Each structure stands twice: as C-alpha cells, then as structure tokens.
C-alpha cells in the first residue's frame, strides 16, 4: 500500500486486518447471543471464517519478518482475549456462545489457535465410532479445495507459482490430515493438535 515505508504499510494492513477480524467475531457473537444458529455450528463457522480472513489479508503485509510479525499481532491479541474470557477475567456472552460447544467459558482455554472439522453425518467409521465417513470425506474435500483456492489467490500476487504438482501435494496433505483426524488417538488427545501437526509434517516432507 505504501511501498516507500514498510512500517506504515504493515501498520495499515494490521489495522485493516484487525477491523475485519473483530467485525467478523462480533457478527458471529451476535448470532450466538440471539440463538439464530446451533452453537456448535457457529463455532465451526467462526473457525472457518477467521482462518480465511487471515489468508485473504496476508498479501496486504510486506514480505519478510516484519510483515509476519505485524500479521500476527491481531491473532495474538485475540488469543489473549480468549484466555481472559476463559479465565473469567471478563465476560462476553456472545463470544462464549460462538466459540464454545456447550457455553462453558473454560472451553476457550483448550486452544483458540486451531481450526478443525469434526463429526458430520450419521454413518460411523468402524475403527472409531465417534467419527463418520461423511465428516472425514467432508474434511478432506474442504481442506483440499481451500488449499487450491488459496494457491491461485497467492499466485495472483506472485508469491508462488501454481502447478499441478502442488495441487497433488495438497490432496495428499488433505487426505493424510483427514485420516489422522479420524483415528481414536485424535479423540483421546485433541484432533486440533494432531491435525495441525500432521498437516505441518506432511507439508514439510512434500514441499
């Protein structure tokens, strides 16, 4: 935005990103407070929405460490906000209803850093009755399509070069993450953590 002054560019980008992020959070908070949608559904939509907003705003920041640090400020502030809510330092009914499964503020302490798709459908996996075929397929498909979409998005800015090979690697990462998410260990530990680690590890090996 301001090519001659990267600090001004990143500060402006941070402001824009912050306004969009907290506007989205406020919107979903109102939806949760009014009970318009199911609480668990709202929680998933919040995770999807905020993750996509972060990626959409990324090109606004300058390249390099400085841009990355500025980009992390809004996310960092939101994490602190979730921790304060979870600890009961202050109360925000809308945020709690839109970010938790059961309306318990302590759920926020389990990790506001991760987005994950959980159970969908009714037909359960034979090796994990807490997961379904529809949920696993939906997770792999959504992750793959989002990855491809953002590949072309970032390619339009010249950050990467879109290719068929990259699309294939995205498919492998999406399938691997969905498989790990479906395993019983992901239920016992936390699939937010296992899916994130799997995506990072497989991505590191493939790229």
UniProtKB/TrEMBL annotation:
Gene Ontology CC entries for this record: chloroplast membrane
InterPro entries to which the protein is assigned, alphabetical: Phytol/farnesol_kinase
Topology relative to the membrane: Multi-pass membrane protein
Domain of life: Eukaryota
Location in or out of the cell: Plastid, Chloroplast membrane
Keyword terms, alphabetized: Chloroplast, Kinase, Membrane, Plastid, Transferase, Transit peptide, Transmembrane, Transmembrane helix
GO molecular function terms attached to this record: kinase activity
Record-annotated membrane-spanning stretches: 6-29, 41-61, 67-90, 133-153
Family: Belongs to the polyprenol kinase family.
Descriptive protein name: Uncharacterized protein
The species this protein was found in: Capsella rubella
